[in-house]
Amino acid sequence: MKRRKVLILCIDAGSHDYLAASNLPTIRQLAKTGFYVHANAVIPSVTNVNNVSIATGTFPETHGITTNYHVDRTTGKGEFIEDNRFLLAPTLFETAKAYKFADKTALFVTKKKLLRMLEAGTDIAVAAEDPPPEYIDTVGPVEPIYSVEINWWLLRAVRETLRKDDPELVYCSTTDWVQHKYAPDEDLSQQHLVELDRIIGEIIDDEPAREIYITADHGMLEKTTTLDPGRVLTERGIPASSIPIIKDRYVAHHGNLGGAAYVFLENQADTSEAIQVLLDTPGIEEAYSAEDAARTFRLHRERIGDIFVLADKTTVFGELEAAVEPTAVRSHGSRHESYVPIIGYNSPWSATDFEYNVDVGRLFLESLR
Ligand SMILES: [Zn+2]
Description:
alpha/beta; Alkaline Phosphatase, subunit A; Gyrase A, domain 2; 2 domains; 7-stranded mixed sheet; 4-stranded antiparallel sheet; binds zinc ion
């Protein structure tokens, strides 16, 4: 029997508008031969939540990663999530090994923190910002994390590894610095995707029978207003603070401004009143108690604060000096960036099997069992 081999590529912020604005002959051909689905990302539409969802085939209610920044309810202390201590589900790699699907598994990401979150069960694990020395010899020198070149480097590393080691299961996730800086019709956005498309073409020429899935973790839109939900509430006499879910150490991407936030109340008895105040605030589109948010978005009940808020299309949340400030930033996190493509090639499934990007991992897992 022919050995089944799978490549999952998550183009960070690779939404339909970005793909459609560039001339991408390989992706066009994959979509034509296989399928192209307009699917949903997991909300909050941020990188780690979605990558972990795809790479475990589960929603945050199961895998536990709901944010980049975890706040301990009992101590009130916050910390960046930069390894797998908070991860509650096995990775696709671990399951593929357990079910003897793969002799060899490989993970390629740009940032070390995502590598540390997902590396369980991998034989090969490469972070482009700090690669193993032998990769520098074959793929080229390390590129800056704030560049388009780092994603090209990453996909070349995938190509070389497929040639040399032939792993059965490969997951690759790029980074979204380009989309944070440039709109879909701008030159650098287009160059970025055209080169990725070209390398994908080389991978397929090498190995035409491999199953390929191309999807995204979220989209990216222009924002004009920043809002601090914690400050909005405090100014109305409800003591609270809020954590933008996007918050991480890579501030050059987004200035920690994103379209979703978890609100922590000093008194949980204020919940209904706080939700009403937030819903009446221009820029806030949705506000849910933790119970309702966990149920609606399949989030982990203990890791989403007291209230989950989603911004409208042009608003982002941040930790500010005032309740509202103007801004000019491209970012994500809200429902408006939660629409992503799924392109499948050589897939045993059809377009209608995919509703969420998570389904790429979920269907793969189910097929192993
Ligand atoms: Zn992302």
